[in-house]
């Protein structure tokens, strides 16, 4: 793909002969000198000596990571191919293979894309934004919204990495992250959260007239009428004159949001998952039957060694629970961090960066990082409290029911891109037991019991699950 006279990256024809099932087809060589795909030897290992060869996963036609095409065949510009290869991406995943030709085709068409957690949706929309930007114009041309500052920062890191060989300029629209006294942003791509994005568009700091792409990551969450939906709609209205291509991606699209998504992104190309395809194969789900709340804490502490083999995320329903547990564990000499929405922006950035770098191995948190966060070393997720939500979007009300979508996203923080992972649910009474049963029935996937008083058995089961 070459830049055309106007400086755009125009996709070339993307039709390529399909690979016959079960047969190996030689990958075409990349067209660029320095853009050599690294051998897919992205191995992770832990004390359990787990090794995952992504190439094996990508060769299995039933895997969401399988693709018959190469990145070159998807019609990406050489500069972007270089960025992909520098990141160690050698072959697209299924969602990338299916979505990219539709996303890059002209005239641009809206997209509602669904694919399991950790299967590479970010690259699909980031490459689209980078492909559609005309770098010779210093004006904002793509905006992307995410539900948390942590996710917005992560998406930006992908934009910067994939755009490393392009002259892309980027800017954040997240709280406490704006350059002082900025009156006009000229960055090509702006990534942020809805509140700050509304502010910047309203004050004309972002000139909306040149915006060609509008992406919602975690779109079902961004469109939920009981949550961020109203703000997201305001952003859309502020962009409406520019008529951008609207791109919605998520691992989940519950029925009540899907109807709204169809209106939000009219005439969209759609890639959908069946209900039984929602959960990721590599994540083994367990539960532990605790006696009461206090026993949950004791069990968590007894798990500490296992939690620190790789990295772990512990999800609680309330901020005060996350704080209390982390304070108690810290006082007892364990090294844990806690992150939730009541902390200030600087603290939040420091905590997540430190966890990302592996300086802390256990992160105790709330739903704030249930979605999108991609830290490959996380091989265990604990639902200290199962996620709940009532019909009005209230997590804390007495009539709250199991929130299956949030459960899928939470456990999806492990088992990323073909890796193995473990999730453990703590249940401690009839109510929490029935909540877990409801999740199990909805997902059609067995959740296996681990005894709380047999650490050896626990370790054995976990080792097996991670193999
Ligand atoms: N084609 C590829 N080859 C190798 N690694 C890839 C490829 N595509 C994505 N990845 C890696 O896979 C991981 C998961 O990707 P990503 O975060 O985009 O998943 P996602 O589908 O957005 O998940 P979630 O639903 O949790 O947001 C990332 O570490 C990313 O770098």
Automatic annotation (TrEMBL):
It is an enzyme of class 3 (hydrolase). Belongs to the DEAD box helicase family. The keyword RNA-binding applies. Residues 282-463 form the Helicase C-terminal domain. This is RNA helicase. A motif (Q motif) lies at residues 69-97. It comes from the Eukaryota. Gene3D superfamilies: P-loop containing nucleotide triphosphate hydrolases. Transmembrane segments: none annotated. Residues 18-32 have a biased composition (Basic and acidic residues). InterPro entries: DEAD/DEAH_box_helicase_dom, Helicase_ATP-bd, Helicase_C-like, P-loop_NTPase, RNA-helicase_DEAD-box_CS, RNA_helicase_DEAD_Q_motif. Residues 1-40 are annotated as: Disordered. It catalyses: ATP + H2O = ADP + phosphate + H(+). Its EC number is 3.6.4.13. Residues 102-271 form the Helicase ATP-binding domain. Keywords: ATP-binding, Helicase, Hydrolase, Nucleotide-binding, RNA-binding. GO terms for molecular function: ATP binding; hydrolase activity; RNA binding; RNA helicase activity. Residues 69-97 form the DEAD-box RNA helicase Q domain.
